[in-house]
## 1
Amino acid sequence: MNDDQPPENGETMFDKLIDRKGSGSAKWDGAPVIFGEADILPMWVADMDFEVAKPITEAIIERAKHPIYGYETESDSLKQAVVDRLQAKFNWRVEKQWLVFSTGVVHALHMIIMAFTKPGDGVIVQPPVYYPFFSAIGHNGCSVIENQLVIRNGAYAMDFEGLNNAFRPDFSGLRPEPSRARMLLLCSPHNPVGRVWRKEELAEAAGIVIDNNAFIISDEIHGELLFGSHQHIPTATLGEEVARHTITCFAPSKTFNLAGLNASVMIIPNPKLRNVFRERTAGFLANPCPFGMAAMEAAFRHGDPWLKDLLDYLQGNLQFLKEFIAARIPAIQVMPIEGTYLVWLDCRGMGMDDRQLRAFMRKKAKVGLDDGFIFGSGGSGFQRINIACPRSRLEEGLLRIEAAVAEDQG
Ligand SMILES: Cc1ncc(COP(=O)(O)O)c(C=O)c1O
């Protein structure tokens, strides 16, 4: 347990039920509108119902004490904190000049695609995948090329043959058209299926992309949210050649629950890519706000004791969810999960189509989950549940689903 917050009655700070209603929370205050139900229990968007680590709050308060909130530039000390973090966590030695700060990762993805594509180009994604990937591609006039993940022996895997094929000329028209695939938008660890890609998997995917003269955007926002002994490997650590072909997006926002502060960082080791990126995004790219920068630095420098407790707690929640569902809602299968706090539920055994499943969860069970089909191909029949909440709240959500299933069957 974190030194700052001694446990009471065996409980931890993560058991504390914090009322977020009325705080402007998208997850809570937005839920009745999004789900169309007043008494919905929100277990959807990826933020946590836990208070953040004390050193982060203190850093924000400290920054707020300075009474001027003008345009902010990244300090050397913030850059050093990022460099140190990547070294300590992933043994990744990056240089300060490789860092490009941005507000959110989604914003960064839009900017990267804008900078390196022309309308009509293709961007490869591996669905089911974090759905804002699709709009980042579409809003830039590019087409989404889907290389769907496959389920092998009960676990998700990348389809390397499919990835290769995504770069092949298209013979479907009158004449062969060269492939317009320019980049792979990789989700690592993968939201929503919870895979933490192994080194060999990443190397194979990267090899295919490089052989085809394309590059990788590696969204590693979940890279510190790992279960058990799983290790996150940043794509760019696979070697110099891969690093030259990779733009990595990283942030403290998922790990430390800071999404509202809009602070992220790209790592672009290749100076050519970095210069082009800076040139083409001038005027679009924005720095995080002063509080976002202060929070990022504090999280990276002082957040580890809290993070350790968080990961223990999430592991407990995962175990609780698995046992509950196996014993009491057998029509749902919990897909194996290695990282993130977003659990992918296989609801195909419930015998409903997507419309029925959505109505069932919202209207009968009154839980606000993310529908699987919004994550693209392969998502149909699945639901995504966010387990980053006090265990009693997780239990309430599961009890609601169990009761709705019983009512349905009775
Ligand atoms: C893979 C992935 N990328 C990006 C984001 C959002 O990042 P940001 O809030 O920094 O835009 C999320 C949020 O869930 C995510 O899962």
## 2
Amino acid sequence: MPIQNIPEKNTIFFVWLNHYAGILLKTPTKTIVIDPVDVKPRQLANTDAILITHEHYDHLDQRLITETQKNTGCQVIADLASAKSLKNTLPPEKIQNAYPGTEIKIGEVSVKVEKCQHPAQNPVTYIITSEDGVKIFHTADSQPYPEMVQIAEKEKLDLVFCTVGIAPGATPETGFEIARLTKPQVAVPYHTNSPAEQKQFADILKTKMPRTACLIPEQNKIYQVTKRR
Ligand SMILES: [Zn+2]
């Protein structure tokens, strides 16, 4: 269901939508959905923007995006391969290409596009900064990569999503490596259908980075994160 409440200042809400990288984010003014698959269009009512990271089936559902765009009039921001195929079914003026180094505004919310280490055509990751400065790094199903350190130093991330399974080479250890490189206030293990993998991630994090909070999400529940002071 769409989130009815509005987050307070300096706070965002998020919902994990599926076993993969599907995330719904709500800031005080905007609702942004990343990589929605396996969800009903009515869950995406009130969407202001959809962000797509790459063309794989667990990230790009062309039918769902097309229907949601029609229902809501939302903007769609997508990696080049996904954008190319979305242009067949969406009004072209509603699609923006995302490639690393670009920044796109959704009202007062900023979306910066970064690289993604994953075997897809032109995969990307996204840093979303809310109008109050809450910083979220949606890493799609990327493997850790060295530039994550510079990104984190520059951005001072509040919330980072870390892939712990399903994708090639992804394990609780590589998920932890993302947390280690990006040093967020809150790390979230996702892209898995195994609670055991999430627990392993949490255990490693607790041992090696005791000051970083681990939030193990359940699907379709609302979580809130407040900007670090
Ligand atoms: Zn994936």
